[in-house]
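Exercise 7. Given the encoded structure of a 471-residue chain, write a plausible sequence.
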């Protein structure tokens, strides 16, 4: 017969106490201590990591950082803070979540030397390196662009490997930013992944324009028709009745910076510098939401375009939605945005005379040569090649002007000396910009393209002279 056994009460108490203490100990081990609670603290953690891991080319310890909030007014769910000190810029982006779950994304770049680093900082102070400290270069950027093309759905589907080649590289007037033009052929017509579709078996040439800014792809289009980043048609002609544009925009200016936010409701924002300052400001951060209409106007038709199609240097008109936040730069939400690819030649001007923007720092120089007669066709100043019917619209160097003396049109250089007259045989260094790449020269042209004077275009270099018959 079994008998019930009774345990001493002290033993039971000891076992229970041990179990409770063990449980509390395990729970405390699973909790992560919160060391960081602000973007500034995340900045300091990232800088400390850099100092411990790298001996050179990092921000000095004694820098004084100026802090600026970049988050658009009314935007919820995430924050972005910028810290600037001299040539160094550091941005910290993070979601608005429980403090212990916050991961801060830190991006550091030297705008002069190109040294660049990326990393993630957890709330407990742990730093994970995403991109090692390295110096941005044109070659590195070109390789990034090439890999992007090779991995694009259009090329992966039926691109012909041996036809892929770089045709041109353009240095944009932003730090460590280049646009690379590639050409290749596909075995079928169309764009993207065309699996399961009826396709025309025809060799199809393509031209891809890839813009790399500080080591990242910020713009990519194919044949000026296909958005390679979003895999959609780049421009769709819009019925004029559907374009809701009031008579006069609230501001007109040039895009000088683009911030890709890509949240649930917001595409991003653009910094617009005004042609003429208004009563509020000379610069506006313009927030563009997912449902904000963005149009492109080429002088004849309006096209609906994606936010990712916007580029620095483009001329835009903006219509406001709601009140303007009077910070500096001012901040506002857009009701509509219109990119003007074409300007109208004023009736009083005898010719269209586009000139290049002044270069900031070193610029890549194109060294091809164009020979031909300087002619005027429909108010368009062109150079016609001696053989064939090809003529190029000339994009003149900064500082060049023209004058009309009786029936004679003279071209003057930046010193005011006459270098050409219409009818001269001329020799111009520089390089061709194809019609398909016309959007790209918005970064180069001071006074905009005109639909009345189509391409191809010739961007004039350093050498300009009369062409002798023996050339």
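Solution.
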């Amino acid at each position: 017969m079994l008998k019930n056994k009774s345990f001493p009460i002290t033993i039971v108490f000891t076992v229970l106490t041990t179990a409770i203490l063990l449980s509390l100990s395990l729970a405390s081990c699973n909790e992560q201590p919160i060391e960081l609670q602000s973007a500034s603290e995340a900045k300091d953690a990232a800088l400390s990591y850099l100092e411990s891991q790298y001996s050179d080319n990092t921000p000095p310890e004694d820098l004084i950082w100026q802090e600026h909030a970049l988050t658009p007014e009314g935007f919820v769910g995430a924050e972005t803070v910028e810290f600037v000190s001299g040539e160094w810029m550091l941005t910290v982006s993070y979601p608005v979540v429980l403090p212990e779950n916050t991961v801060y994304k830190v991006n550091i770049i030297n705008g002069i030397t190109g040294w660049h680093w990326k990393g993630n900082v957890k709330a407990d102070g742990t730093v994970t390196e995403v991109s090692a400290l390295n110096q941005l270069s044109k070659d590195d950027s070109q390789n990034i662009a090439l890999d992007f093309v090779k991995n694009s759905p259009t090329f992966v589907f039926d691109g012909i490997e041996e036809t892929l080649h770089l045709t041109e590289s353009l240095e944009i007037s932003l730090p460590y930013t280049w646009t690379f033009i590639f050409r290749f052929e596909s075995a079928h017509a169309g764009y993207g992944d065309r699996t399961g579709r009826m396709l025309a078996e025809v060799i199809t040439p393509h031209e891809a324009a890839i813009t790399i800014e500080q080591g990242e792809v910020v713009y990519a289009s194919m044949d000026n028709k296909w958005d390679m980043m979003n895999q959609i048609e780049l421009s769709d002609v819009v019925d004029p009745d559907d374009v809701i544009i009031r008579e006069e925009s609230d501001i007109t200016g040039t895009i000088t910076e683009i911030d890709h936010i890509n949240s649930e409701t917001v595409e991003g924002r653009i910094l617009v510098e005004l042609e003429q300052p208004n009563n509020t400001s000379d610069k506006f951060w313009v927030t563009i939401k997912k449902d904000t209409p963005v149009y492109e106007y080429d002088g004849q038709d309006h096209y609906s375009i994606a936010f990712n199609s916007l580029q620095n240097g483009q001329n835009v008109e903006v219509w406001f939605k709601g009140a303007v936040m009077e910070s500096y730069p001012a901040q506002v939400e857009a009701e509509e945005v219109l990119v003007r690819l074409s300007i109208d030649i004023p009736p009083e001007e005898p010719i269209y005379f586009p000139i290049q923007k002044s270069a900031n720092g070193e610029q890549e120089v194109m060294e091809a040569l164009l020979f031909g007669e300087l002619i005027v066709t429909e108010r368009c100043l062109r150079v016609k090649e001696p053989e064939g019917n090809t003529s190029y619209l000339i994009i003149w160097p900064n500082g060049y002007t023209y004058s009309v003396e009786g029936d004679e049109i003279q071209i003057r250089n930046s010193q005011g000396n006459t270098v050409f007259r219409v009818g001269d045989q001329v020799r111009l260094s520089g390089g061709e910009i194809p019609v398909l790449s016309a959007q790209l020269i918005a970064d180069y042209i001071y006074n905009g393209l005109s639909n009345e004077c189509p391409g191809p275009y010739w961007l004039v270099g350093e050498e300009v002279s009369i062409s002798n018959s023996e050339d």
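Remark. The longest helix spans residues 9-30. Students should compare their own answers with the one above.
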